[in-house]
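#struct-queue
[09:14] JT: dropping the first one here, sequence first, then the structure tokens:
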Amino acid sequence: MNLFNMPIATRTSPLALAQTRDVQARLARAHGEKEPEDSFPILGLTTTGDKITDRALLLAGGKGLFTKELERALLDGKARFAVHSMKDVPTTLPDGLEIACVLEREDPRDTLLTRDGISRIEDLPQGATLGTASIRRQSQALALRPDLNIVLLRGNVDTRLEKLRSGEMDATFLARAGLRRLGREQAELPPLELSAVIPAPAQGAVGIEIRSDDDEARKALEPLNHLTTQICIAAERGFLQALDGSCRTPIAAHATLEGLEIHLRGEALTPDGAKRWANETRTQLPELDAGAARLLGYELGLEVKRAGGDALARIVAETG
């Protein structure tokens, strides 16, 4: 197998680059390559999503804004791999592309960051200003605290932390996985418990996309794939696909796997958090297969969709 000059496409944000350097190092170790920069050079690209800083992404097209330039590099032959945060990846991929590998997931929980050390949404001051660009986080926060003042906050980790320090807002959310991968001290703060706040589908997981006809790239990734993570996020993404599949509707899902038993929890909410429809399942999978897990998630998503009825359908229509 010729592993020389197999470029890895990535966004150029600090977190994306940290994740991609990790993939680069893992590939080099797995194949005994002593010069990872030669065998797996990094191709940094600015995506459409990175350019949009003045409005929520759902107003600019939703999911796919962080992936399409990377996918174009794959299809054009400029890259052999594309590294993604899986929560940013649409549930339907372009023809000719596939997610060939998923790394072991980091802690998927959200962390609430505040100027005064508060770590729980319930303990924020009355009418506190909370900054987020996530419709899911907005809805879940308002479900717990409808008095909160939600303001748009976009940008990388440093941008968000600086706006918090400057007093522009009282609190914000960051994914614990990202804080850990960047080596930030805030990663040690208490995260929000999964029993209180379910994360975004596939949060904390890194996936690697390739062209479907690139058997060499697929084989190179085989030692990196983490089957348990792959199965869990397949279930979560199946749930997402049944309900909407974009970032326009507040949707959360999280799965765990013990042996063949998968436990999946999911919910959909109104943007103001006033209504939420949740369900969960504990099911024995017939085998360790991502396809079976995705179908299970899809079926649970359909149950939530039916429970939401016309009210949930209107949310999807209004944001679609």
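[09:21] JT: and here's the second one, same format:
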Amino acid sequence: MQGNEKGSAPWRDGLASPIAEGSLERAMEATARYGVRIANEAADSLQEAAETLRLLGYAVVDSGLTAEELDALRIRFAELYAAEAVGPRGELRRAAGEAELLRCPLALDPAFLALAANPRILALCESLIGPGFILNQQNGVVNPAGAQTYSQSPFHRDLPYQHYVSTRPLALNALFCLDPFTEENGATWVVPASHKEEAFPSEPVLRAQKRQVSAPAGSFLVLDCMLWHGGGVNRSAKDRRAVNHVFTIAMMRQQIDLPSALGEGFTDDPDLRRLLGFQHPQARSVTEYLAMQAAKRQRPR
């Protein structure tokens, strides 16, 4: 992942270039109104997604991947998932109650690293979170066929146990749909705009306002991490598979310490190192902290 000629990360130009055909025509077909002095403008599909996320807390975003790239990801997901299900690792997963999860596939296959660095999603993160965000976690998720419940079915926030709101997102959840998300196979339930309220909604309001979000294979379902959501029941005959990503402000601790797990020599690409958190190591002592600060001061600016 190389920077552009100005030295910036490649996704940073994503919000400046229209992607959706006909976006200008749609902008010209304004809804009748009066008394409006301030109005948002969305010149392309990513800006529409950013505005929708601010307003409702969720949006579906096309990844831009080809059908061949999507098929290749499906094959590798199936291979990695099967490999992780056997032997000591499989036993440990089952003991931890994580038989339906594939933790950190980017460490196992570079195709999933490329998925985590999807330019459209990174552009959206920069627009909403701001520069300096990091990848907090990447996990494969399987919603088993015919299951009445699974690990992600209870309503939750992806910053669990937190009851506060913020003016800007602290984190975004980008759930990549390896398979289509439909009502039949347990598409994600959301409570629109619940990222703006501290408390979990009352049962009558929850039942009245929750919505199930369908999404095509190859798209991302992007959520503000403070939005209440949960997986649906998969009534189909096939497992529904996805790869979840959580992007956060850099001060949040990663689910798995990616720089330690991947190793210092994992990549020399400065943009990937920033995304994976290599720029924000956690000091284990005062001496180590001072050494890291001294090293930063010696780097060329």
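[09:30] RK: nice, looked through the second one.
[09:31] RK: The first helix runs from residue 23 to 28.
[09:31] JT: good to know. The chain has a mean pLDDT of 88.
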